[in-house]
Automatic annotation (TrEMBL):
GO biological process, one term: methylation
Reaction catalysis annotation: S-adenosyl-L-methionine + a thiopurine = S-adenosyl-L-homocysteine + a thiopurine S-methylether
Keyword set includes Lyase: no
Amino acids binding S-adenosyl-L-methionine: 16-27, 56, 77, 121-122, 139
GO cellular component, one term: cytoplasm
UniProt lineage: Eukaryota, Metazoa, Chordata, Craniata, Vertebrata
InterPro entries on file: SAM-dependent_MTases_sf, Thiopurine_S-MeTrfase, TPMT
GO molecular-function term, one example from the UniProt record: thiopurine S-methyltransferase activity
PROSITE patterns: SAM_MT_TPMT
Record-given protein name: thiopurine S-methyltransferase
Location relative to the cell: Cytoplasm
UniProt-listed Enzyme Commission number(s): 2.1.1.67
UniProt enzyme class: transferase
Amino acid sequence: TGTGSQKDRVVTEEEWLRKWEVGNIGFHKEEGHPLLRKYLDVLLNGRSGLRIFFPLCGKAVEMKWLADMGHSVVGVEVSEQALKEFFAEHSLPYCEEPVPEISGAKKLRSTSGNISLYCCSIYDLSSSIVGKFDGVWDRGALVAVNPCDRQRYVSLMITLMEKNSSYLLVTVSYDSNKHKGPPFYVPESEIKSLFG
């Protein structure tokens, strides 16, 4: 599979924060991701008023798009700057609240109440804190997680999913010997073994 050159690579939380600070966010899509539009029916499956989770959300414009459709959106991101930029760029008023269960974490919630973004490590979350979700839009999360943390990440994601939830996953395919990541290359065989 050629993932050997990446398997030991670790990107620290500080490196991610620095990317936001210096504007090195080539992974952010101003217009939203075309694959979400294309496969929206798969995510929603004819249902309305869903709870949709955005792992490692950054300032994804799709969060507002789905909230405007009547869904409840929850995201998690280590960069408070990214979350504040999200609210500012959409002119959305919000309030900040501490998250008592997670030391140092905060939740930025739109005053309309349908968008809640947690500023903390994704690994600090649990279903007892954020609840469970009808849908997950994983665009850039699994491929950003350090390879050594993939199993931990997927195990958490599975605990956050309702029984009949939909999980849309976007990955990247390339020669992993030529790029150290992130985004990391996750072969389809590994995705199948991770998610079962």
